[in-house]
Structure formats: C-alpha cells, structure tokens
Design goal:
The protein is of the alpha+beta class and 134 residues long. The protein has two domains: 41 residues; 88 residues, Cupredoxins -  blue copper proteins (Immunoglobulin-like, Sandwich), CATH 2.60.40. It has one helix and nine strands, in the order αβββββββββ. The structure holds copper (II) ion. Copper (II) ion (CU) binds next to loops.
Length: 134
Amino acid sequence: MLLRTLRELSLSAYEMSRKTLSIVAILLAACLVNSCTSKRSSHNTRILPVSMRKFAIEPDVIQVKQGEDVLLVVSTKDVKHGFEVDDMGINEPIQPGKSASIHLDTSKKGEFNVACSIICGPGHNEMTAKIVVR
Ligand SMILES: [Cu+2]
C-alpha cells in the first residue's frame, strides 16, 4: 500500500515535471517565433534605394528617423563600388547587376559619412554622401 502510494507519487511528480517542461518548451517556442516575426516583419521597414556610379552616390543625403527600421538597397550603375559607412561598421562591395540590402542601425542620432571603399577611377574620392539620423 505504502509502496504503491510512493510509486504513484513519484509518477505524478515525473508527469508534473514533464508537463512543466513541455509548457516551458511551448513558451520558448512562442518567444522565438514572436521575436523572429517581429524582426522580419516588413510592415514598418522603409526601403531606400541608393545608387552608386562614377562618381557619385545618389541620393547624397539619406535622411532617416531615429529608431526607424531602414533597409538600404544599394546598387551600382557601372563598375564595382564599395558602400562604406565607417561609423556604422558598414563596408559592402556592390557588384554590377546585383544590389545589396543593408540594414541600417538608426539607434543613434547624428550624421554619418558614406564613401566609396573601392578605388574606381579619378573621381573616386568625390563619391561621398551622408546619412542623417534625427
Ligand atoms: Cu567608387
């Protein structure tokens, strides 16, 4: 009798822990799904096309709001260029015929210089722009 009760007790404890585990697993899964979808939701993402060419970056002033979700879609009209924003840790080669999507960190206000990081000809140094986060 006592043995049986003990067995039942340990069984129910085992089942309880299994239940707890599955609840924790479900909660974890829900959190993961939620954070994934909120990061990937394209609802509020502002997509800004930027084009590079000899020897300009257009637009040369890219204005965004602090905290805004911004995706730059950078392409080149001629040769290979490099889209570089030193203070944002961005340096992306841009190949002809293939645009690059660059997610902007807009958490800090300020002006960030954009330059071409791949020497592309005599006007290479004139290839500048700025990102203004306000
Ligand atoms: Cu260039």
